[in-house]
Amino acid sequence: MSKAILSLQWHLTTKCEQRCRHCYLYTSPDAKNEIEGERMMNYASLMSIVDNLVSTCRRIGAAPRVSLTGGNPILHGHFWNLLSYLLQQGVMVSILGNPFGLTDEVAAKLYSLGIRKFQLSLDGMEETHDRFRKPGSFSATVEACDVLRRNNIDVAIMSTVSRANASDIPALIDKVVDLGVRAYAFARHCPGDGNASNSFTPSEYREFLATVWESFGRRANSGTEFILKDHLWNLFLMERKLFIPQDTDGVVVDGCGLGISHMTVLADGNVYACRRFKSPIGKVPEQSLYDIFFGEALDRYRDFDRLEKCRECPLLNYCRGCMAVTHSTTGRWEAADPQCWR
Predict the structure, then answer these.
(1) Between 43-60 and 79-88, two packed helices, what is the crossing angle to 10 degrees?
(2) What pLDDT is attached to residue 196?
(3) From the CB of residue 340, how many other CB atoms can be counted at a distance below 10 Å?
(4) Contact status, residue 148 vs residue 102, Cβ threshold 8 Å
(5) pTM for the full model?
(6) CB under 8 Å to 70, separation ≥6 — which residues?
């Protein structure tokens, strides 16, 4: 059996060369104050958090994993020292960034320190993507894929999907395969500004998954791994008899990692259950990650009896929808996932 993993998504900074239209850093109600009032932690605090994570994982018998992101994490003044220390401590590290500043020199340095995976975003073909991100972003991302690959770093591509770009995704799948991307996945848009006009209806989302499934099948064995990140894939596959849920005796085996195996650390040290909606559960380095993870604030997200629709579903321990999408659409994370068609 593989060792359990405790994962941190660590937002080192809100500094970024882009202002993506759908980014939760800029659409959440507290975003303006968060960005303008950002206080990046000093070096000692960063190292303390790493030590905190490593000791917590030893205590619970889990392997530590960190996804460094932002904003653009490379823009943080202590990025390189932090990255080096994380890897020295045996932490699995991946980077979720953007293409700007990704030169051969930077990629070579990342590789020399031990980075083997870098995630970039493409939200459609060029016109669509540049409308969401900024002009020139699509071509910069394509170029960055080449830079990373020739420096022996695997590229993962993530898309944020909604009605606004759904029609581009089949062509984008072909594009990422042709770019030699190692992995591709997508997540649903969280309308943090309260505007859900581009959100799928349940039937639209089911149809979208069917279309994407056909595209995945067409490019199977291409060298690109298609990761079924959205938990509603389990419902889709169950209906097609490609997945049969088993009795797990109450044990969570799949689905959202919120409260199960994942937390988020923000640039000022605040810890969220999930970064995609306001879900504060503690603060580091003032508190132990162990105490935060097993604390009452996070416990409420593990109380599945609060899930108004999911608690009665046979896929409860495999899915639970997306609390972030639910909260951003309805204002309540306990409500029914707005794209679930069951």
Answers:
(1) 20
(2) 79
(3) 22
(4) yes
(5) 0.91
(6) 11, 12, 13, 14, 15, 16, 76, 97, 267
Q: How far apart are CA 229 and CA 255, in angstroms?
A: 9
Residue 259 has pLDDT above 50, yes or no: yes
Whether omega for the bond prior to residue 285 falls within 30 degrees of 0, making it cis, is yes
Asked, as a colleague might, if the bond just before 71 is cis with ω within 30 of 0, I would say yes
Per-residue pLDDT tens over the stretch 69-81: 988 999 999 999 9
Give the sign of the dihedral formed by CA 23, CA 25, CA 12, CA 277: negative
Distance CA 337, CA 323 (A): 7
Which region, left, alpha or beta, applies to residue 160 given φ > 0 means left and ψ of -120 to 50 means alpha?
beta
For residues 292 and 23, give the distance between their C-alpha atoms in angstroms, rounded to a whole number.
26
CA pseudo-torsion sign 85, 90, 91, 96: positive
Distance CA 88, CA 100 (A): 27
Strand partners, 258: 262
Q: How far is CA 257 from the centre of its chain?
A: 11
3-state secondary structure of 207: helix
Beta bridge partners of 159: 186
Burial 124-142 (b: 16+ CB within 10 A, else e): bbbebbbbbbbeebbebbb
At residue 84, the 3 state secondary structure works out as helix
Question: Which has the closest alpha carbon to 261: 24, 57, 52?
Answer: 57
> What residue type is 292 in one-letter code?
I
